[in-house]
Amino acid sequence: MKEIILIKNGELALKGLNRSTFEDILVKNIRKRLKSLGEFEYTKAQSTISVIPLSDDIDMDEAANRVGHVFGIAGYSRALQVDKDMDEILVNAPKYLDSYLENIKTFKVEAKRSDKNFPYISPEISAMTGKAILTKFPHLKVDVKNPELIVTIEVRDKYAFIRGNQLKGAGGLPVGTSGKATVLISGGIDSPVASYMMSKRGLTLNAVHFASPPYTSPQSEDKVHRLLQKVAVYSGNITLFTVGFTEIQEAIRDNCPEDMFTLIMRRFMMRIASKIAFKEDSKALITGESLGQVASQTLAAIACTDSVAKMPVFRPLIGNDKDEIVNLSRQIGTFNISIEPYEDCCTVFTPKHPKTKPDIDMIEEAEKVLDIEGLITRAIDNTKVKTISFQEN
Ligand code: ATP
Ligand code: MG
Q: Is the pTM of this model over 0.85?
């Protein structure tokens, strides 16, 4: 007798021909996430993946918690695997689910029998289990229409399984099924949320962060590491490129009109991120921009930054209000880190009156005084690479 986890695929159930590749990637992702907890066996049948611990000392609370963060899972439940014996089912169903049964008023039992040789048919299994539960918890009532708890008994070929309500999974597509993209990550609220959202659509993430020491501190880089550790709970490992941006920012400050600082700087970010992405076989960029949120995120400003990106730029928050973004950031555990007060390179040398309706020709003209290629090459040479792994709460 042991506890296992049963996983229902999410959208991959719809993927027809690709389904088995998708399932393989999902299993690989779950495997990676659970590896440090001990050894598990994985089996697939009827769009359900069973995760079976191979030793008794595995922390199944933590295993279930981690499964809940893996994209590509619609729902999952913990289940008790027992011998295919009616007495075993009747003794264990009330015992296994007691912490739920104690605290509710209504339940029903659903039985499924794929082994047609089992001596009882499904309605008999349901009725007998229901009675066993009512005997132990006489305060309960059976409600077949709207029960608080559905107790499911499944009799399969080797074992029977007892489980309670299914929990909601993280949804989305398994990470790695949509390719790879590079997120421009700041220490702010938005870009970690944007990372989470695109990873949910099946993208493996790389990240690029621009740091301008001594104007920005080591703490602000550490903050970015901690933000990405939270994102990695969902996305899996993230390769972070921290680019030295000081020379570029100083060159802009010394040579370009002040009202264009931010836009010229953001165009450098896009160019450098495109180059790093290209080398890493990453096919898109991701930013945390939201239309109209600040001067550099007006339609005209976005057109200026977009025009130097060498690949599609995904802005999953473009239509979100700040409070919606904040809610998501609380949900994924990044908010409290994001609001720590460290300087970002965007906040040093900010113009007092940034252009809100910039013109691409004007910006290009203003950039001409800079040695764009030289600055970019030196910044990329001055890049640190680090792999960020997930850090559970
Ligand atoms: P965030 O909360 O993500 O910092 P923001 O509202 O502060 O966003 P901006 O500072 O204008 O917005 O930045 C817009 C986007 O540019 C960010 O969402 C992020 O994708 C990218 N970005 C900003 N600063 C950096 C940085 N230092 N390194 C990498 N990317 C950055
Ligand atoms: Mg920012």
A: yes
